[in-house]
Amino acid sequence: FAGLADVSIAEDIPVEGEITVPVGSHSPDEDYSTLDEPVKDTIMRDLKAVGKKFVHVMYPKKSSALLRDWDLWGPLVLCVSLALMLQGGSADSKEDGGPQFAEVFVIIWFGAVVITLNSKLLGGTISFFQSLCVLGYCVLPLTVAMLVCRLVLLAGSGTVSFIIRLIVVVAMFGWSTLASTAFLADSQPPNRKALVVYPIFLFYFVISWMILTFTPQ
Amino acid sequence: GSPPQGLVDDTEDVSLDFGSEEELALRKAKIRHPLATFFHLFFRVSAIITYLFCDWFSNSFVACFVTILLLLSFDFWSVKNVTGRLLVGLRWWNQIDEDGKSHWVFEARRVPTRAASTEAEARIFWLGLIICPVIWTVFFFSTLFSLKLKWLALVIAGISLQTANLYGYIHCKLGGHKSTSRATSSFFVTADVPKRQERRTSEDHVEIHGKTGTR
Asked: What region holds the Yip1 domain (chain A) (predicted)?
């Protein structure tokens, strides 16, 4: 390699090619120069990636953003906000909502892990974290449903409010399931699609059930 | 450029150096990345302290849970993306190529750059990296045996996040040449534009081992 080093120093031989990779990835070279700038750049880039994924969930079509550039920030934020909104239910007026908060958390993450393992055991080609990423991001419609339900419950908790909540939750549940199926089912062989979709259906059904049966104190 | 200065006394440096005053000061400092060092320890230690003294801070379980979880997540992100790179020149990430196969890439900086890290920084990095998962494991057993099970999810999350970073960086450190050459060969197999290119950095010129590179 000593010969190559000489070649690149020499003036008459042009050095061609790109030094940094502009494809939205981290490039250690330009980040080594200063401390403040690149950290902000890294943060902004990650935030934009997360935002892009949220948009892709709301308009589900085949996108490589959700699948290839996976991250778990979105699922974390969604999980925490959903768990926070499910606080203050009538079941636990004595305690400070401790177990129920942790329950929602565990249900979402453990459920997602189980679905992922299931799809991997069925021979899926998608990787572990990609699947977690998709399942987590597709909780977004249900989080929106939870928000709407809480607002509706502020107005009153009669039959009308229940019907509104039911419609909203069912619609969002369908949206979540369709969105995640659109991303996940493709990675399976055709005769196994139903086997993969069923646990996803169950997962979002449980979350929808928690949302629908939420009654504030 | 200006001719390189021979620096016989300072063994930490590469021979190519332009020797401005600023850089001399930088080289002599024991800690060259004070902010990175601070943040490396700040999030981890705050998470542990909050967990230990959560009763003093707030009565609400939820507030403590969310705070500690956020601290752990910020710690994971900053150690993985920033402090490892700056303090010890190691980096690891996951990459999904065109076929949808996922690769774990472990990169180690071979030639120290101008603002290379010092021994003190490296020591702080590794100590912080190793001691905290151990502390969270201790918390795991204490939570289990004192039956405060509502904290168990949080402790497990803490252990997983911190151990993931520990494992990744140890793999980087020990993997060295083998891992990076495996990563390069996987780039050669998928002939499209690679998302990341392996590079060895010396002061001014960068050797690219991409699709047109030669070995």
From this structure: 59-210
For A82-100, what is each residue's pLDDT tens digit?
998 888 665 545 555 556 7
Taking the C-alpha atoms of residue A67 and residue A130, their distance in angstroms, rounded to an integer, is: 6
Angstrom distances, CA of residue A96 to CA of A88, A102, B59, B66:
8, 12, 8, 14
**A76·B73 Cβ contact <8 A:** yes
Residues of chain A contacting residue B206, judged by C-beta atoms under 8 Å apart: 19, 29
Give the Cα separation of B204 and A12 in Å (integer): 17
Across the interface, of B66, B113, B150, the residue whose CB is closest to A99 is B150
- Give me the residue spans of the domains in chain B: 27-180
Residue A83 CA to chain centroid, in angstroms?
15
User: Distances in Å between the alpha carbon of B123 and those of B87, B126, B129?
Assistant: 9, 5, 10
Chain B residues whose beta carbon lies within 8 Å of the beta carbon of residue A101: 61-62, 65
Q: What is the pLDDT at residue A172?
A: 94
Q: What is the ipTM of this complex?
A: 0.73
pLDDT of A17 reads 63
What is the domain partition of chain A in residue ranges? Answer: 66-88+98-213
- Which tokens go with A96? 């400070």
